[in-house]
Amino acid sequence: MTSTRGMTLAEKIISRAAGQARVNPGEIVTCTVDLALMHDSSGPRRVAEKLEHIGASVWDPHKVVLVTDHFVPAIDVDSANILACTRKWAQAEGVENFYDMQGICHVMLPEKGHLRPGMFAVGADSHSPTAGAYGAFMLGIGSTEMVGVLATGEIWIKVPSTTLTRWQGKLQPCVAAKDMVLHLCATIGMNNSYQVVQYSGSAIDQLSMLERMVLTNMTAELGAKTGIIAPDLITLEDIRRNDKDFEMLMIDQWQADEDAHYDRILDFDVTQLGPQVAAPHSPENTSCVTDHKGVKIDQAYIGACTGAKESDLKMAASLLKGRKVAKGTRLLVAPASVQTTNICAADGTLATLTEAGAIILPSGCGACAGMGAGVIGKGETCIASTSRNFKGRMGDPDSFVYLGSPYTVAAAAIAGEITDPRELL
Amino acid sequence: MSSHPTVKNIDGRAWVFGDNIDTDLLAPGAYMRAPLQVVAQHCLEAVSSDFARHVKQGDVIVGGQNFGLGSSRELAVQALSFLGIKAIVAKSFARIFYRNAINLGLPVLVCRDTDDIADGDHVSLDIGTGIVTNHSTGKSVQCEPMPPFLVALIDEGGLLPSLKNRLHSDA
């Protein structure tokens, strides 16, 4: 069935990548890939032999971005060997965009200037939708699927329909993008398959790129194909930090048509939104922080692609300044990238955190995925600025993870129990 | 189209799980450095302590909504295959898990009407027709048909054999 109605932003990007004038939801199309992201866990250790087995080579090494972030720094021989395999492959295949121990892959892409609006990208990691903050369409895929992309430069997809979320109002103190997306998990659940979730409205316009990335990042938790935000002047300014020639034209080009069709339009007013907390063992198990007050915590964790960027560390520092982490509670901070560490060291943010008692960990996925430093033991409870709190994800199967914004995590670290961060203002 | 020699007659014990079986349950992060056989020993241990020990070749998983949500890790699929699971029937699948399963040649069928199947029931299923038969109750249910090109992909054994065929025929 053909249609003449306008297209959503996602449909425009897919059409361009599929070489078609238009696409319609439900249609299956083959898209050319502009960028393929892999990391040490999903990358060379999984794809190298398979590529060789099918007798293929990388279609375009310039379009590949490879990052070590899951097993860094090596904590045992197994992780050291995985990292060695990753480095060797990058060299052998001529992958120039290789960021070794520089930060988490979803933060590396914008930091190193790889994202542009209108891009069709894939990443062998479920949080790949993060790139949607830049008006790119980025899909999370598995490693075998990545072998197909590396061999052919293409991938088939079923064209998703778009859910448009419209956010109005002004965020209250101690409320952040993390609270918005946790609230969205509770509202629309985690099974939004064959959907792109687009974020729009005056409350989105006011968010920095780093905060927008929190929304698109956790679109993975919504079960959607990806998340996207139409580019604007804030996007333009951010991209120009790496690319002085980037033009306004590119911003204008990658907007939805006025008569685009949305599967659903959902309206939210953030003015009334309080800090949100997701209780074990699911991000959709979310309600206002006041419902969880008094839950004792053993560990507070500021980390991951979701919650350890410059903006996140500064939110935590704003409450920790002049205060101390409660006795019997530990606060771990794993900055999302080396650049984050550098900026926060230069401006005193790190000192504020460490003076309060925070322990600074290496940049990487760390405890979020249960692979690095900071995992928790049997019966322990952690509150984290990360994205997922599935049973056993951060350590022992009988441990408990609560999710909140960096404000809420910092407040819990100070009190030794979950508390409303607004009470610390 | 070719017949489905590898997947035609799946017949085994049903392991029934609820909604939202995530990839951290299927392949816990703590074992992500380890070889597949080690990961597989811990598959689903947080919700079913005896699954990995008692599952047999030919058994089938019957899941609820959003099966396989979370990470893109293929070990979530590979651990099940390693333990002998030959197909998964669920009310819905998380998108990356669904594609990973097909790419690795593991049949995944969407069926909203599986409440009749109890843990331990003897079931068989036909991927071509999408019919699941519960021999313990005598009832059959029809799954949503898989798109033919995905059935063909499973027939070929998954994405790698398919790519190999494609690359060779192009040459």
Uncertain segments of chain B are 1-6
Could you tell me the strand content of chain A as a percent range? 15-25%
Spatial sequence of strands, sheet with the most strands of chain A? 4-3-2-5-6
Uncertain residue segments of chain A? none
Can you offer a commentary on this structure?
The complex is a heterodimer of chains A (425) and B (171). Chain A has helices at residues 9-18, 44-53, 77-93, 105-111, 143-152, 177-188, 202-205, 209-217, 233-240, 248-253, 304-307, 310-320, 338-346, 349-356, 406-415, and strands at residues 28-32, 35-39, 64-68, 98-100, 120-123, 137-140, 154-158, 161-168, 195-200, 226-228, 264-269, 276-278, 286-288, 299-302, 330-333, 359-360, 381-384, 400-403. Chain A is of the alpha/beta class. In chain A, the strands form five sheets. Chain A has a five-stranded parallel sheet with strand order 4-3-2-5-6, with helices on both faces. Chain A has a five-stranded parallel sheet with strand order 16-15-14-17-18, covered by helices on one side. In chain A, helix 2 (44-53) packs across helix 5 (143-152) and helix 6 (177-188) runs parallel beside helix 8. The model of chain A has no long low-confidence stretch (mean pLDDT 97). The model of chain B is unreliable at 1-6 (pLDDT under 50). Chain B has helices at residues 23-26, 36-41, 51-54, 75-82, 95-103, 148-155, 159-170; strands spanning 10-16, 60-63, 87-90, 108-110, 122-126, 131-134, 139-142. Chain B starts with 9 loop residues before the first strand and ends with a helix. Chain B has a seven-stranded mixed sheet with strand order 4-3-2-1-5-6-7. Chain B is built from seven helices and seven strands, in the order E-H-H-H-E-H-E-H-E-E-E-E-H-H. Chain B is 30% helix and 18% strand. The interface between A and B is large, with 48 and 40 residues.
